[in-house]
Amino acid sequence: MRQIENVVSDRGSKYAVSGGPVQGRAGCEAFLATLKRTKKYAKATHNSWACLLSEGGPVKNDDGESGAGAVILRMLERAELRDTIVVVTRWYGGVHLGGDRFAHVVTCVRAFLEAERTD
Question: Which stretches of the chain drop beneath a pLDDT of 50?
Answer without folding.
Answer: none
